[in-house]
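Duplicate of #3305? Posting structure anyway:
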């Protein structure tokens, strides 16, 4: 049985309706920061890459001296006020252990979520401790992530669901955790739908943007359920050579109502236009934390159909249609309900107030200052 959820101090909550003060002059001293993204971010252009790159960019706009880590260069950790590491995992374990023994403050954005409960994680870690004498050199994925998290001076999860897993599953003290949300660029609000409509001849459709080849994104069950009489479905994102992608391609090819466009660069104005041309954005994933693409779509004015797992409700509140990713019928039901709903400005206003990258940079800055 899981322990009761911790009651968060008011300073950790980000669901208030107060507008960010990121446009005010920087009053605190300028900090020297080293930001370290995982090596995989150079190849996998996903949420971790976006989160680290935009956090770096907007901290610089607030006047801080932020260096992007290059493994081919030499660094003196003690020359920085803060070292910020992204991703708790095997590729960051050695670095985290090294930083733990330095005098510089070390902050971690763990990018961690699992559908397993905190009690299950605790049991796995306990069994691993018991069996460590028999299986020397073996560490589970949870053990590695826990070790990275326990090494940090401060942990910055994106959601309170993620924070509770780290606190109750890994045994990290609550005072070492501050929730800092993910963000979105303002450019998605004022884009034009015309370029996309003119190029593809589609509007008021259902849109998916993401790594369609990743089983976690749960695209295949959506394709299996999508009907010929539903609004067109547009898929933007990669499909690789896996069996999963092959199954997706087969369903796409068999349907006149599903349109696969492949990847579109995140900086391409055509992506902004796609969000504007769509009526509904869908992420039927097994979980999201919370799905940066969904924030972008929400700011562009899309109605949102999204998984209910991973902390998405903390971001979208009552302004989304939630999916049970384990039930195919839930996916298509949420999409249809979203299409039937009236467009509401409430979600867009919520995102503008709380989840811009400017606001994220402000909250990150405050978190840094709390440990200096």
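Output from current build:
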């Amino acid at each position: 049985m899981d322990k009761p959820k911790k009651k968060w101090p008011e300073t950790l909550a980000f669901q208030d309706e107060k507008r960010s003060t990121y446009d005010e002059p920087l009053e605190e001293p300028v900090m020297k920061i080293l930001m370290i993204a995982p090596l995989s971010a150079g190849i996998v252009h996903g949420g971790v890459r976006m989160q680290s790159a935009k956090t770096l960019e907007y901290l610089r706009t607030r006047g801080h001296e932020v260096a992007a880590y290059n493994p081919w260069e030499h660094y003196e950790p003690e020359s920085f006020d803060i070292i910020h590491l992204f991703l708790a995992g095997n590729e960051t374990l050695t670095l985290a252990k090294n930083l733990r023994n330095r005098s510089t403050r070390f902050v971690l954005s763990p990018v961690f979520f699992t559908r397993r409960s905190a009690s299950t994680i605790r049991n796995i870690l306990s069994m691993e401790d018991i069996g460590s004498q028999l299986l020397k050199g073996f560490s589970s994925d949870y053990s590695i992530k826990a070790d990275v998290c326990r090494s940090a001076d401060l942990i910055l999860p994106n959601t309170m669901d993620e924070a509770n897993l780290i606190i109750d599953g890994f045994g990290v003290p609550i005072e070492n955790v501050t929730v800092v949300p993910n963000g979105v660029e303002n450019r998605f609000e004022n884009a034009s739908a015309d370029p996309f409509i003119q190029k593809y001849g589609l509007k008021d459709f259902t849109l998916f943007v993401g790594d369609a080849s990743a089983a976690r994104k749960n695209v295949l069950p959506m394709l299996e359920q999508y009907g010929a009489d539903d609004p067109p479905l547009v898929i933007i994102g990669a499909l690789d050579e896996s069996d999963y992608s092959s199954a997706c391609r087969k369903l796409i090819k068999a349907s006149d109502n599903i349109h696969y466009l492949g990847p579109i660069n995140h900086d391409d104005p055509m992506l902004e236009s796609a969000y504007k041309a769509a009526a509904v954005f869908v992420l039927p994933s097994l979980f999201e934390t919370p799905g940066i693409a969904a924030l972008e779509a929400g700011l562009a004015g899309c109605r949102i159909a999204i998984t209910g797992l991973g902390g998405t409700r903390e971001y979208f509140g009552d302004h989304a249609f939630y999916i049970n990713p384990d039930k195919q019928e839930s996916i298509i039901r949420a999409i249809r309900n979203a299409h039937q709903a009236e467009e509401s400005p409430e979600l867009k206003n919520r995102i503008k107030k709380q989840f811009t990258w400017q606001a994220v940079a402000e909250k990150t800055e405050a978190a840094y200052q709390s440990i200096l």
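Confirmed duplicate; merging threads. Residues 39 and 91 are 8 Å apart (CA to CA). The chain has two domains: 10-183+356-369, 186-354.
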